[in-house]
Amino acid sequence: MIQRPRSTRSTSLRSARKVQKQEDLKKAPAPKRQYCNMSEKMLGTAFELAREGYMQRSRGELPHWQDVARKIKLGFDEEFSSTKAWNCVVGNHFGSFVSSNAENMAYFYVAEMGVMIWRHG
Questions:
Q1: Could you give the CA distance from residue 103 to residue 43 in angstroms, rounded to a whole number?
Q2: Which of the pair, 59 or 95, is modelled with greater confidence?
Q3: C-beta of residue 53 within 8 angstroms of C-beta of residue 90
Q4: H/E stretch holding 111
Q5: How many helices (DSSP H) and strands (DSSP E) are in the chain?
Q6: Which has more confidence, 101 or 82?
Q7: What are the pLDDT digits (tens) for 17-62?
Q8: Which of 75, 94, 23 is nearest to 107 (CA)?
Q9: Ramachandran angles phi, psi of 117, nearest 5°
Q10: How far is CA 7 from the centre of its chain?
Q11: Where are the beta strands (DSSP E) in the chain?
Q12: Which of 30, 76, 113, 120 shows a CA-CA span of 20 to 30 A to 87?
């Protein structure tokens, strides 16, 4: 198999995304915990994904709250589960009553954006 060199355009696009992600994390408001029953590693990942999603939504890259929720859910499915059992709700005003696995739930705010993520199953 012949290996082709990576194009400079795709490499520069990846580095531009990385720089944008770092800038987003600096500019995004700090999360405020409401309820947390998960490890610090998981919570840190949730905060990072939520802050990225918040900034992407404020720029118009993610037009709806469900797009931010999908971003967080897919990030958790990829990093912490092979069964795709993570669920996420994002929005301004919502209530909930859910069942979750032990030590797999968090509810927090990034500015006015409420985020609840939990694992069931």
A1: 11
A2: 59
A3: yes
A4: none
A5: 3, 4
A6: 101
A7: 777 777 777 788 899 999 999 999 999 999 999 999 999 999 999 9
A8: 94
A9: -130, 135
A10: 29
A11: 31-38, 86-91, 104-110, 113-119
A12: 30
Q: State the Cα–Cα distance between residues 18 and 15, nearest whole angstrom.
A: 5
Give residue 5's pLDDT: 57
> Which tokens sit at 57?
């939504």
Tokens of 33: 């915990």
CB–CB of 90/113 below 8 Å? yes
- Dihedral over Cα of 94, 62, 67, 77: its sign: negative
The two tokens of residue 99 are 């069942």
- For residues 30 and 108, give the distance between their C-alpha atoms in angstroms, rounded to a whole number: 10
User: What distance in Å separates the CA atoms of residue 2 and residue 117, rounded to the nearest whole number?
Assistant: 44
Query: What's the whole-number mean pLDDT along residues 61-79?
Result: 95
